[in-house]
Amino acid sequence: xxxxxxxxxxxxxxxxxxxxxxxxxxxxxxxxxxxxxxxxxxxxxxxxxxxxxxxxxxxxxxxxxxxxxxxxxxxxxxxxxxxxxxxxxxxxxxxxxxxxxxxxxxxxxxxxxxxxxxxxxxxxxxxxxxx
Length: 131
Fold this sequence. Notes:
Blueprint: H1 3-17, H2 24-36, H3 41-48, H4 62-77, H5 84-96, H6 104-116, H7 121-129
């Protein structure tokens, strides 16, 4: 796993920890995201326990920023409840990734709805690019 992906998975793991209650569905979602990207469970465990920091805005393309925020949204919704702490993590991540502040709430509502419907990232990206 490259350094950028390590940082992305560190932040995803922090999302899971944000509400202090790690639900098994959240871990399943984390491993499922990794599997879709060709990353093993062992690599994910190694990444989340590494000393890496979270990914920064300049390290990602626009599509990668959307994908990362969508992955975080999927994790937040994995246990069917988006808690205040998880929403705060999403808002902070969106700000850090350079999304325009007045658009963040609309973006998060959209991404969480897509996560609820279990849409693939390609479906989500297609909706965004065609709107």
